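Morning!

As promised:
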Amino acid sequence: MIPNRPTFRRIFLHFFDVHYLELKTKNANSMRRRVHEECRRATRFAVLSAEEVLVPASSYFESPECFGIVSELAELFQYGYLNLVGSALNVQEFADAKLSQYPLGSPQYSSYKSLTVPAGDMPPFATRKNSSTADICAEWLRSGAAGFMEKVAKISDRKVISLKNVENRWGIVPELLDGRAFVLSHVAPLLFEGTPAPDILLNRLSGVINEAYFLSYTREFCAGIVADLNDLAAPHAVPSFDSDLPFKPLLRRSREVGLLDRIDRADVSELLRIRDSDEWKLCLAAACGDYDRKISAASLGEYMKRGGVDDAIVGIITALPEEFAAVSSVFGCNDTFSVSGQGAGRKYAEAQVTTKNRSVIKIVVGLMTDMGNNSAAIRATHMINHFQTIKNVLMVGIAGGVPNPSSPKDHVRLGDIVVSDQRGVVQYDMDKELPTEIECRSRPRPPGASLIEIVQHLEADALLGKRPWERYLSDSMKRMGASWSRPSDESDVLKGVQHPQDKDRQCGQPKVFTGTIASANKLLKNPEKRDALRDIFGVKAVEMEGSGVADATWNSEVGYIVVRGICDYCDPQKNDDWHNYAALAAAAYSRALIEAL
Amino acid sequence: MSWPKSLPRQRVVICGSMAFYSTMVELGHRLREANIPCVLPDIDEVLPGISVDSADADDLKRKASMRHIRRVRDQRTFAILAVNLDKHGLPDYIGANTFAEIAIAVAHYKPIYLYQGIPAFYEDELLAWRAMPLDGQLENLIRDFTDKNQDQKLQWDLFDEGDTDDPE
């Protein structure tokens, strides 16, 4: 039986980065041929597998390697399989912007100055929304020096390079760059104040910059990469946001069936024939299977070696991709990994948070396969079984808010944050239905006491003007771009009701409420029902996963809490305008909560 | 019988992933500049344009591995330098091939030098095997090689001064 070809929506060819290629081939002409061959094969594998292949425009213009390999596939340009991506409206604007980033006389400056390829002879140019320089700056500031310092902590050259000075200067590097390209040759002299740094420091610094650069692309385009490369393997993790194409297994499998030679020699027509052939589908499916097995074993092994399984003590569950993306952004999650086993619910992102008392808390983040309490309970149970040191699970995401216009201090609005209090979650579809009444039979599931205590402290801090979640929210909004910004207050409309004045509300910031959260396997768009839940149970938010998580954690005897950003009013007027911002708000508060553990 | 006028020169064998090859070449240059002979792995390449099946590709790789293992074991080998740059986000990466070469070196009582630090993955084994992390600096390796070879040269020189007769 011929399997369906595994789906690769978009693959970003990260390895064409100019500085990256230069590093791989300097000193070793013998490697040039190998590297060229690997680049060429990886590009062809991507074209054979993905719906769209993205090439950084800077690489196309600055790297003869990239230009040559992509130009061989010129006949593909008309089909839109292969696109350049850059932060400009068109090629000319792109080149003009680049000229201002590189010094006169540099090879890059010359490349852009002498741009001669007619527009029709190059791949289509796709405009990026984000600037990679801006993204790298944001990631640089977000991650801070801690990760870099940890990696170089053992370097004996701290006598030559003052690591304390490096830590102090880290935050001002973007400002000192003054619009120049965020590349190693510009950054290193600023960070090390002109002192020649040993190669090991420079290599690691280059890794930090490259990782942020690749993240900028893969995140914006939700793209995967060509992974498991040989000579082009990166020193650092290459973040991806979709399925990755496994190079080594594909190389082996295609060689085994005699396809590799054909792929190497193929012109575009032949490549398109191979792409649609059963042979290739089988080869690709087999290679993906090989890779999944390899990654599962390696990930869990590596994770155990790093102490991840033993140390992960907080789990976060999200129900929607935007919620997962929000958490990933706020927490700076690393690449996803899978634990071994069968079926769904094995994929996680991980992050680390340093608490106020300088201890490190490891976090795993899971994304449910579907909404609803059933899926939430399954996911939470899986997570607790996969990571047996988990002590607390947070359900983080968006929810419908329950307004209370007659009581300003209890009036929940769009963009606010609701956190479950001691009363926890009421499962309002667990009931007994009689002819004349419905009796709610939800079981009490109080959240974890230590988490409730933290929430109380955060509330006290807020009264003193300390709201750390506001900074996380603001940083993430900048990083994620315009579609994640706070919508205008004019769009916060509650039908037929004027929002009451609330002197405790900070303009442009979410207000945090603690209270009961109502949960059921239903999408509520009924304001009467919403208000009844408020009047009977004191509910402040309505969602669809909290009671599943509450039950699963109760069964496993670990703590839980629900953190929700408010995106609508559970009425027929609900729309998606506030989804992204609300997801970020919930994630930001969660980070503040975990840091206070 | 005459004592040999020249000794077989010792050398350092450089090991590591092909992804680090350009660094290995650079380190080779630096060691040679310090008058230390060194040997790099062969590039186990399948030449472009030459069609090979999996068995042949594996065979080429195996032969290249065996050649380098023989170099590690060779009596002329003073030590191995494992070039363990970061890879896949793992600091101080040592792959399976390189780890095997390290193990063989240990079994033949050759000192192990790691170009960077000790990777967490194999920390227990490498510490037990007394692998020496260089943190990106070659000075300790150069010093140790020079000291060892100076001692040997002095010993040979004792027997070499104007007397070619067999002391026996």
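The helical segments of chain B are 21-33, 54-73, 96-107, 123-128, 139-160.

Hope this helps with the figure draft.
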